[in-house]
Amino acid sequence: MGLSSETLELPMDLVTDEILTRLPAKSLMRFKCVSKHWLSVICSKYFSNRFLTVPAPRLYLSLRDLNDKGKSVILSLAPSSSSSTTPSSFVVDHDLTIPRMGGNIVQFFRGFMCYIYRSRAHIYNPATRQLVTLPFINSRNMIVPRGGDKVVYYYFGHDPINDQYKVVSLISVYSLNGAKVMSKNWVFDLKAGGGGSWREAALTPPEFSPHQLAVRGGVCIDGVIYYVVYVDYKAVVVSFDVRSEEFNMIQIPPRDGDEDLRRTLDWSLTQNLSILEHGGKVTLFDQTILKDKGVLALWTLEDVRSKKWSCKSQTLKLCQMHLISNIKFLIRGTTQKGALV
C-alpha cells in the first residue's frame, strides 16, 4: 500500500490556542509575514488576550546594582532543553535590559512589568521592549513634616470589558514615627503610546479612610486591583474596581501580632504582610509572628462579596527555629502548580 500524498491540515483554532500562544513574541513577529491570514490572526485582539493570559514556563530575573544608582538587568529564563513537562531547571535565553531601566519591579501582570525608578512608575513590555514612563504626580501640596517622610506606591490593573489599563498611586505623608498619616489616591488611564495625565481619585464610600500607609505590591484579579494599607496601625485590604473606579476596604480578621506595630511604631513590620494571587483569589502571606512563634500563615479571601476569609498555617518545630533567625521571606507570586515563590 502506497503512502498518501494528502497533507494533514491542523484546525486554525488549534494552531492559534495551543501552538502560537506558547511561542516567544520574537517568533510571532516573524510569522506575521507568512500570509495575510496569519497577520490578521496574530494582530487580532482575541489572540493578544490569549497570548497575555496563557501561562508559559518562563521566569524573569531582575538583578539590581546598588552601586550604580539602582540600575537593573532583566533576564528571561526558559526551561533547559533537558527539562521535562514540569521543568526544574532554567537557562538564560534573552537579556531584556534597556536604557533607563532600574529600581524595583512591583508587579508583573498580563505580560507587562510595572516598576518604580526615581519615584516614577514605568510600564515595560519585555516581549517588544517597549517602555512607557508615567509623568510625575503633582503632590507638592502634601507637605512633609519635620522628621517625616513621603512614600509613593503604584498598582497596575486592567479592565477586561473595556480593554483599559490603569495605574493607581497612593501617596502617603507621615510624621516622625508614623504617628500621623495623610494620603491621597491618584489614577492614570494608560493609553496607546503612553499618553495621559494623573487625576486625583474620589474616595468612595464616605467611610473610606484618607489616613493610609501602603505596602509595596498589589494584584489585579477580574478587573479589580487589590493592595494592603495600614489604617490606625491595622492592616486592611483596599480594592479598586478598574472600570467603575470605586474604592472599598476589606477588613482582615484579627491576627497574632496586630498590636506590635501600635506598640513599637516600627513601620518595617508592615513588610511582614505580602499580597499575591493564589488559585485565582486574593491571598495574604503573613510572617508577622514567624520569628517569635515560628508560624507562617496564608489568609485567602474566599468570597469578595461576603468578605469571608480562610486561613492555613504552618508551624516550625522548636529545633527548626534557628533556621529563620535572620531570614525574611519575599514572596513574588506562585507557580502554575500553586507553589509560592
Automatic annotation (TrEMBL):
Pfam families xref list: F-box, FBA_3
Record CDD domains: F-box_AtFBW1-like
SUPFAM superfamilies assigned to the protein according to its UniProt record, in alphabetical order: F-box domain, Kelch motif
PANTHER family: BNAA05G37150D PROTEIN-RELATED, F-BOX ONLY PROTEIN 8
InterPro entries: F-box-assoc_dom_typ3, F-box-assoc_interact_dom, F-box-like_dom_sf, F-box_dom, Kelch-typ_b-propeller
Species per Swiss-Prot/TrEMBL record: Thlaspi arvense
Ranges for domain F-box: 10-51
The protein, known as: F-box domain-containing protein
